[in-house]
Amino acid sequence: MKFKIAIIGTGKVAWHFSTSLENAGHIITEVYGRDLAKARRLTSQLYDTDAQDHLDFTESAAEIFIVAVADDAISEVADAVLLPENSILVHTSGTVPLEVLGYSSAEHTGVVYPLQSFSLHRTVTWEEVPILLEAEDPDTLSKLKKLVKTLSAQHYVVRSKDRNAVHVAAVFASNFTNHMIRIAEEIMLRQGLDFEMIKPLIIEQISKCLELGPKAAQTGPASREDMETLENHHLFLQYNDQLAEIYRLISQDIIDSQ
């Protein structure tokens, strides 16, 4: 089943969704961007799509409208957008509840949240991306399932409060993990050491975590309650009080979770 789709937004999620959905055979009718130049840059990558800088879609042929904007802009867009009859309005956020779309002019609303981190210049393998779906009625949900199946993506039907929990867990697993690796890089560089030295350890730890489970894969001085080493590390980090406190808090949490 192929759909006519309009994309509202010009960020990373909008880029990946629009190009991938078109490649899957759907028609991208319009792309909206507050900055028309950005909308045009996106439509230049598509076959026959109009760029616009207004939210009046009343004459659009699209049946599904995908809001792919920053979380704090979704409510504003939903309130302002003008849609044709019988249209479906969905957002792509992991943390914003479905109900924020309830005051829009859409007759049907839903959520299509891809559980992945997106970068403009990295190709997305959709077969490996879980997509969390939610809708207010069975017919809309059925259409959204058909839509994501064309991307060969796994999908899960998840309510707003549970999707928020998934998003929090994802921040810990992805964003916080990345930040910890960034801190490790800064420590190495501060000592004049090559960060490449520590990369095999990072790769092995993540692989082991996913294979054995995070509890079984936990190692290090905190997991064995090596207080002497913990104190030594804490003293080393005194050049940065915030890093020293992060180290202390995480180490204590590891000890407490044993």
UniProtKB/TrEMBL annotation:
Source taxon at top rank: Bacteria
A family per Pfam: DUF2520
Full protein name: Rossmann-like and DUF2520 domain-containing protein
UniProt xrefs under InterPro entries: 6-PGluconate_DH-like_C_sf, DUF2520, NAD(P)-bd_dom_sf, OxRdtase/DH_put_Rossmann_dom, TM1727-like_C_sf
Sequence ranges assigned to domain Putative oxidoreductase/dehydrogenase Rossmann-like in this UniProt record: 2-102
Domain DUF2520 intervals: 129-253
Record field: transmembrane: none
